[in-house]
Every structure is written in C-alpha cells, then in structure tokens.
Amino acid sequence: MNRAVATGSIALTLASALTLTACGGSGGAGVAADAKQTLTVWAMGTEGEKLGDVAKEYEKAHSNIKVKITPIGWDVAHQKLVAAAAAGKLPDVMQMGGSYLGEFADMGVLEPVDTKTFREGDFFPAAWQQGSYDGKTYGVPWYVDTRVLFYRTDLAAKAGIKKAPATMAELRSAAEAYQNKADTKWGLSIQPGGLDTVQSFYQFLYSAGGAIIDDNGKAVVNSDAAVKALENYGSYFDKGLSEKSVRPGYDVTKDFNSGAVPMFFGGPWITNLLDENYPDIKGKWAVAPVPADEASVSMAGGSSLAVSADSDHKAAAKELVSYLTGAKGQADWFERTNDLPANTAAWKTGELATDPTMQVWRKQMDTARATPSQPKLTEITSKVDTAIESVTQGKSSAKAALDKAQSEIESLVQ
Amino acid sequence: MSLTTGPAVPQAAVDKSPDSAGNSGRARRGRRSLSKHNLTGWLFSTPFLVLFGVFMLFPIVATLLMSFTDFGARNVTRPLEAEFVGLDNYTQLFQDDKFLKALFNTAYFVVVGVPATIVLGLLAAILLNNGIDRARTLFRVGFYAPVVTTIVAVAVVWRFVLDPSDGLIASLASEVGLTAPDFLGSETWAMPSLITMAVWRNLGTVMVLCIAGLQAIPAEVREAARLDGAGAWQELRGITVPLLRPTLLYATVITTIGYLNVFEEPFVMTQGGPSDSTLTVSLDMYREGFNFFHMGYASAMAYVLFVVIMGITVLQLRLLKDNTR
C-alpha cells in the first residue's frame, strides 16, 4: 500500500464518521417481525459461505423474510465492520469475533441482548462471557472453539508413550520421548513469536492458574502463575523441543503428517483439515484434553451474533438469532460446518453426544476460559505476544518480559 | 510495494526540453482567449477535480487535522469527542522505540535496496539491449513479469524458496553439505531476504525505463567512442551512464519513494517479525491505525513519513540533477 492509500483510508474513516453525526441515530419504531422485510447479515470465513444454505431454509419457513448474507474475509472483517459502524451502515445481524465485541460494544453500535429470550444457562459459560461487556450482554454465542492436544498415536507407540499426557510434566517427558525414541524432529509445536502467539500460550497460562486480565478487569499478566507458565513455555525452546524459528503462515498439519511434529494444540477445524488433506494418517492420531498444571484449562474462542443498534428490523433479527443459536439450529449448523455448538443442549443428540472425540472438546469447553471483553484487546494481546517472543528467542527472562507487558497493559485496560 | 503506479513518461519528467517553453506559450494564449474555452476546459477537468478533491485533498487535510487529536476507536461514532492534543502525537513518536526501529528498518531498506535495484535494473537493460540477440523479448518479459505479479502469488513462491526446512535454497544447500540460514525467521536475515525480494520485484520497472533511455542514445555517439578505442567499461562510464542520467534520476527517485513506503513485503512475508526486525514505517502505521485504532497517532506517522519522503526527494533532485549541468 502506498502512502496516499494509507492516508486516504485513515481519513475516509473520519470522513464517514463525520457524515454519521449528520444523520444521527434512527432508533425508535422498527418493523414488526411478521412484516415483509429483508434482513442483512454479515458473516466471516466458512460461516459466511455456509450461512447462505441455512438462510434459504429459513426463508422457506418465514415467507415474509428475505435474508441477505454477505460473506466477509476474516482478514478484512475488522476494518469493514469499523467503517460500517462509522458510516452507520452496519447490517441488521453480524457475526462478532470474540476479540471484537468489547470494541464495538464500547462504540455503542450494538443492541443489548434481550436476556429473557436468550438465557445465560443455555450456553457454555466462557461463550456467554465473550458476548458480554461492562456488565451487559451484546452478543448471543453462536459457536465456540477451544484448543486441545493433537498427538500421533503411532509414533507414541514407538516412543513408548502409553497414554496421552495428562499433566504438564508428562507433556514435557512425552515431547522428549518422541524426539529421542521415535526420531521426530520436534517434540511439541507451539508458536515461538509473531502475531497471536498468545493463542498458543493460553493453554499454559490458564492451566497454571494465570490470566492476562482478571475478572475484575485488572491486568495480572506478571502474576507468579503467569511467570511459571511462561518459563515452562520458554523451556521447550531452550531444550530444542520446539522450533524456535518464527515462520509466518506456518501450517502445522503438514509437519504433523510427515511426523516431524508429533504434538500440537489445535482447534476443532483441524480435524477436518487432517481428514481431508492427510487421509494416510487417519487412525494414527488422537485428541486429548490440555495437560493439567493446576487444572486443565484451555482458551475459549468463537463468535457471537450481534444485532446493530441502528437496525430497523430488530424484532425479525432477534428471531433469526434465536433460530441460529437454538439447540436445533445449532445441531444443524454443526452438521454443515463442524463448528462446535455454543448451546449446550445441542450436544445431547447425534454425533455430538456419542463420539468420544467430540467428548474431549465438550469437556474442554466446560472449563475453557475467555479473555474478558476489552475495547483494546488486540493491542493488549500484542503486548503479550512481544513478551512471549522475547522469552522464546532467549532475550529476556519470563519475569522481566511479563513485568514489562504488565506495565504496558495496565494503561490499556479499562 | 509496486512502482508501476508512477507517471509513465520518464524523460519528460526530468528533461529540460524545449517543450516546456512551448507549453507556457500555449498557456498564455489560453488565458487570453474566450472564456468559453475556459469553460470547456473546466468542464472536462471537473470529474477529475471532484474525484481529486474527495479522494485526495479531503483525506490529506483530514489526516493532518486528525494527527493533532487522540482519535481512537470510540471516536468512530463520536468523532467530535476526539480531543485536541497539539503536537503530543509527534513528540510521542520520537520517544517510541518501535517507531524509531521502524524508521531505522525503512532506512536500511532504502539504503541497500535502492542502489541494488538501480544497478541491477540498468545491467539487465544493457544486457537485453545489446547482449542477448536471441529470445530478447522472452527475457524482457521474464524480467518484467515480477512487476505485474500480485504480491500474494509472489509470497507463495518466495516462501517456498526461503523455507528453512524444505525450501529451494535449503534443499540446494543441503545437497552440497551446507546449512542454509533461516531466512525469514532470523533477525539478521529477514531484512536482507525482503530486500532481495523487493529488488527482484522492482528491477523490471527500472529495466524498462532504462531500455527506453538506451534506445534514445544515438548510435553515432557509441560509434565515435568505439573509433576512439573505448572499451565496454569506458563506454558504460563515459557514454551510457551520463546520457541516461535523466532516466536514472527518475528511476532513483521513484524507487526511493517506493521503498520508503514499503509495506507489502513485510506484511505478507514476516508481519514485521521476528522481533520487529522487519517492521517498516508503513507497516507500523497500518498496525497502529487499523489494528489498534490509534488513528491520531497513525496520522501523525503518515505526516512524518510524508515529510521524510519530501525531504529526500528534493535532496535527490538537487544533488543528482545539478551534476548533469
């Protein structure tokens, strides 16, 4: 991008923002749910692509409503949402990534969720927490994701590992055994640095009982537990168990297939990737819960559905969101996308209830922890990324790196 | 970064041709003529002027104003609540280690990248203009292809070339018993790798400019030199380079501006890492603006970059142009 474009786009945001003040909030009377209307919906990535089919079925059952889906790429989603928010042109319903919600709620462009229709108890606690900001709920959990341990069972047999590592100490010895006895290049793949390294670190941090921000919104990233977690994380790089080199766009499944990497933490979509791209190793790998430190706690991610505060179709939007987040809609959605349902009732039928692999995800989700919604979350986690990188590259001790991050984050939390 | 967007007529941009006198004469005549002619002129320029005003002038002014405020995410919906902070953003910039590092990295990119691009572009031009008789077009297209290839495709290819475990260079090195460095993952090698990539992508532009310039050099001049017994090196130093000076000046200026703005290479290849070793000013600006939403701060960065680019360009024009006289 050249400078003119950069300047241009920055300033355009301001320009559209200025226009917004002129048209002001439309609020007030909206269109009734049973009136004839078109609902606009924005969704990202796979969700955006697959939602079209669901919309068609929804339209069949609700002849007065036309659902217009706009798929957006994750790479431009944040920018498009901000620009639309500034211009007052947000769609009626939109998918909100967990890390966005605080920012948009803080801007005042999201409609608070009607907690009589959508009940906290129906969803995983971490999923519900991600839709909340400043004591209010703005997003209804749509799907969740968390990380579990993927490991090669065939190589484990070679390495003399009898069962999946259940504690952090066992994880370490498994990594060593893989490397020494099964001749794998690495022991465990965790990200050494770069953007969103924190997602690899959450498993260590949360399991050790640490956090970046506590439930009261205070920065606690240099707590003893966090320091211990980062020391543990960094030691994999010291000892050559994990690759120290930062490789942007690295695809771990390739090395998992070749056996260079026998263990990594991955999300639910990895299962599909492995089945589709590497059928040769089917049956030679399994998933296990995050090895416990103080406890086995993984990160919670996923997306919520939010309704725009400016929407004229709030009633119909609410019905669509109900449909998508209800037990039936969620089970159907899982069939189509393999996205893990956020609504716990959806887990009571079919594959979700019986498949042992799915039970690993389910159990992990029960205790998974979400990062509290914060308007500056992206910036906050980037400070943690920097801290982690300085440790994995051997430039700083865990304590010093986290002390630095702590002082930076303190000025960013609200 | 792509250089193809610059003005396409190198010679006219720097030549002190008689043309400029002719132009001003025409302009004088125009001013004296009927206002109807003026009206037609304005009418034809209006679409451009409107677009220029909306998409260039307004953003430029708005950015300047924004650079004196603390405009952030909150202000997207409440822009008038942005607070005026005077020169705070600017003073903060020069105490910001990250920005200073980005500034240093950008300078590194320019200081190494510009000479390499110009020299290699010129050599490619000379080679293709004189040296290779067969398949000349094929080679010209080959050298120019990287210029018109999208950065995403380029990134895929270069990742394959540079990959430390099974990349092209790593494989070749291991064939002969050497270990290739971890190009993108090491703080020492990441920047040189990106510069190499940028040179590869941009030397085609310089080459095309130089070929055009070379073909404008009269054959008699070369013949005269050869009759006087000049060798290849003397011909290059005494004839080619001096006569190509306007072209080379233009190529240097646009390449420098392009490299001062470098964004795409670090964005797609390294995301500024490892440890910010490839963070450039444009990338830092993009992050501050669009990831963290420090719009005021990012705007100030844009203006600092603008002043730097302007200063360097003026300096280059002065230094290099005066030499030709």
UniProtKB/TrEMBL annotation, chain A:
PROSITE patterns for this protein: PROKAR_LIPOPROTEIN
Keywords: Signal, Sugar transport, Transport
Signal peptide: 1-24
Pfam families assigned to the protein according to its UniProt record, in alphabetical order: SBP_bac_8 (PF13416)
Keyword Membrane: no
SUPFAM superfamilies named among the record's database cross-references: Periplasmic binding protein-like II
The UniProt record lists the keyword Nucleus: no
Family named by the database record: Belongs to the bacterial solute-binding protein 1 family.
Protein name in the entry: Multiple sugar transport system substrate-binding protein
Annotated source species: Streptomyces umbrinus
From TrEMBL, chain B:
Domain ABC transmembrane type-1: 103-316
Membrane topology: Multi-pass membrane protein
Residues in the signal sequence: none
Pfam family, one: BPD_transp_1
Organism lineage: Bacteria, Bacillati, Actinomycetota, Actinomycetes, Kitasatosporales
Domain of life, source organism: Bacteria
Family of the protein in this entry: Belongs to the binding-protein-dependent transport system permease family.
Region (Disordered): 1-32
Protein name per Swiss-Prot or TrEMBL: Multiple sugar transport system permease protein
Alphabetized UniProt keyword annotations: Cell membrane, Membrane, Sugar transport, Transmembrane, Transmembrane helix, Transport
Organism: Streptomyces umbrinus
Transmembrane parts of this sequence: 39-62, 107-129, 141-161, 198-217, 243-262, 292-315
Intracellular or extracellular location(s): Cell membrane
